[in-house]
Amino acid sequence: HAFSEKVALITDSANPIGRAVAMQLALNGAYVIVGYPQSSEAEMAALNELKALGTLANAVEADISTVAGAKNLISNVEQQYGRLDLLINCQDFRADSAFDTTTEKDFDETIARNFKSLFFVTQHALTLMGSRPKPKIVNVISNCDSEESRAAVVYTAANAATVGFMTTLAGNLEAKFRINTVRVSEKEKADLGTFDSHDDELFRTRKNVEPDDVARTVLYLLSAEAIGVNGQVLVVE
Q1: Does position 2 have pLDDT exceeding 50, yes or no?
Q2: 204, 196 in Cβ contact below 8 A?
């Protein structure tokens, strides 16, 4: 398996993309740890799916919008495995408010759950990843290219901050590290009309990006094939 015995942390299993990444990594032999903000049937279902594959999988409840929560998540990884090879940051939170109605609470929560969480999880994870031979980090964010996301100014700013953070880290971490970002398009696909009768894999009629498609891109960036890719943004449309 491509990721045999690698320890992988996916920060949010409630995110459909995070769940898809966790499943694909498990199928490829990784030991998977998934974080989740609060206990629910959905998170337990995700964990049970992973365990059904026969892989070593664990779930950790942690509110990573706080520094204490971020530290707790990484501490759990250290206690369970003593190492970390792969980190996938995939938190995604949007306050339901436009620019002119954004409150301080909306602002703080959006920044905390989308950028602050990623910042401090990565900060604490680096100490655990530093001893590994080929540590890799992938951030999954929105491409903010739909009308809805463009109107969410604070959310868009948090995603932009993630890209700046990644670029800076890519230039400052040890040479063995790789850190990249996947931006997921929110644009609806155009109707393919007369192509509908053709092979659906060649001429897709789906209107939105599938989580599994994003997961495959994430796994590429985590793989040995992407050894020369660092500090880059890949857009999945």
Answers
A1: yes
A2: no
- Six-digit token pair at 140? 């999954």
How far is CA 66 from its chain centroid? 18
Q: Retrieve residue 86's tokens.
A: 């792969």
The order of strands in the sheet holding 57-61 is: 57-61, 31-36, 7-10, 86-89, 136-142, 178-184, 233-236
Q: What is the reported pTM? A: 0.89
Nearest to 126 by CA among 58, 61, 78: 78
Choose between 220 and 57: higher pLDDT. Answer: 220
Residue with tokens 């190492």: 83
Question: Quick count: other Cβ atoms within 10 Å of Cβ 200?
Answer: 12
Residue 94 contacts residue 150 (beta carbons within 8 Å): no
Find how far residue 106's CA is from the centre of its chain: 22
The yes-or-no verdict on residue 184 having pLDDT over 50 is yes
